[in-house]
């Protein structure tokens, strides 16, 4: 089996093909069984990961740290770049040079589009993008695709609906690009008119001949979808006035959730603010707490394993 992740950066996901993803997900499922049986193993003993987070994170940061620890590797215990020499003005380039002298892999989150790619140019070890501004969040996209695959098996013929602030939500970019690998996929994007999907994503989907629509309301679409992906309004990426204009545009209540197919799923990569009402959490369709969060750890364990070990 060809491991195309080995010693490579994971800055975006457009270079991955269906076979790469199949191999990654197989590894994630194998690792899941090991974790369930004995918590992990020592396959990454002697390897060190540096997490360079210039933006807050709960899930991505913690799941990478626990993923490395469960595989026997070590971490540089730096919980935020706000405790590093970045606050003294050290550049991204120098930071990449320095941390890649200590670690075998860098995991980087940064508010600016393209910043992680820039660091990858100066790093002597693989760099994983943990979210770069409004760009990509490859490990979240892969986690989401794994969650969908676990539910449906065959990823073709699914109808995926994204709702919310689609202009600023990087997991929408990453997951949509991954879905474009499956020729019969259908995607509906529902957003306030101020925050539609980005032109770059639209062009990408057109180039891949993906069947997609854009709309401003979701009520008439819900009954036909297999996957509903709800997003948060990214307050930190917009003006106060735009935030107040669009917040609360869509709130998924149990009445809406129950109008969906019985076999459908409701996803959110979290944090959730008020776009999904709390009574939906116990709806059998909701997978954001019950599966998506934990899958993030298994997929990141598989990513670390495949980048750091050839086999
Ligand atoms: N899903 C996600 O990226 O969450 P965090 O911002 O908490 O890492």
Tell me about this structure.
- The longest helix is centred in the N-terminal third of the chain and has 21 residues, at 18-38.
- By secondary structure, this protein is α/β, with parallel strands linked by helices.
- The strands form two sheets. A five-stranded parallel beta sheet has the order 7-6-5-8-9, with helices on one face. Strands 2-1-3-4 form a four-stranded parallel beta sheet, with helices on both faces.
- It has helices at 18-38, 59-70, 92-102, 115-122, 138-152, 170-179, 199-207, 240-246, 254-257, 288-308; strands at 48-53, 74-76, 105-110, 127-132, 159-163, 186-190, 211-215, 227-230, 265-267.
- Helix 3 (92-102) packs across helix 4.
- The protein starts with 17 loop residues before the first helix and ends with a helix.
- It folds into two domains: 18-136 and 294-308, Rossmann fold, CATH 3.40.50.1370; 138-292, Rossmann fold (3-Layer(aba) Sandwich), CATH 3.40.50.
- The model has no long low-confidence stretch (mean pLDDT 97).
- The protein contains ten helices and nine strands.
- Bound molecules: phosphoric acid mono(formamide)ester.
- Phosphoric acid mono(formamide)ester (CP) binds next to helix 2.
């Amino acid at each position: 089996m060809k491991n195309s992740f080995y010693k490579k950066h994971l800055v975006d996901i457009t270079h991955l093909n269906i076979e790469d993803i199949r191999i990654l997900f197989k590894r994630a499922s194998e690792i899941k069984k090991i974790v369930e049986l004995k918590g992990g193993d020592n396959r990454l003993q002697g390897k060190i990961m540096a997490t360079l987070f210039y933006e807050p994170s709960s899930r991505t940061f913690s799941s990478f740290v626990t993923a490395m620890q469960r595989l026997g590797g070590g971490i540089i215990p730096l919980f935020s770049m706000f405790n590093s020499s970045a606050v003294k003005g050290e550049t991204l380039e120098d930071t990449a040079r320095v941390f890649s002298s200590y670690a075998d892999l860098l995991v980087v989150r940064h508010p600016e589009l393209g910043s992680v790619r820039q660091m990858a140019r100066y790093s002597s070890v693989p760099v994983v993008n943990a979210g770069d501004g409004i760009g990509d969040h490859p490990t979240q996209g892969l986690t989401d695709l794994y969650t969908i695959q676990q539910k449906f098996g065959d990823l073709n013929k699914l109808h995926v609906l994204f709702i919310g602030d689609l202009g600023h939500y990087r997991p929408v970019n990453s997951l949509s690009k991954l879905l474009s690998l499956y020729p019969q996929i259908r995607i509906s994007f529902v957003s306030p008119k101020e925050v539609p999907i980005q032109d770059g994503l639209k062009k990408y989907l057109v180039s891949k001949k993906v069947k997609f629509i854009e709309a401003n309301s979701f009520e008439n679409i819900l009954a036909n979808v297999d996957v509903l992906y709800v997003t948060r309004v990214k307050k930190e990426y917009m003006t106060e006035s735009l935030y107040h204009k669009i917040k609360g545009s869509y709130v998924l209540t149990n009445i809406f959730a129950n109008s969906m197919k019985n076999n459908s799923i409701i996803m959110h990569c979290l944090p959730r603010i008020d776009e999904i009402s709390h009574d939906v959490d116990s709806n059998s369709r909701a997978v954001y707490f019950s599966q998506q969060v934990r899958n993030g750890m298994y997929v990141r364990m598989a990513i670390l394993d495949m980048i750091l070990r050839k086999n």
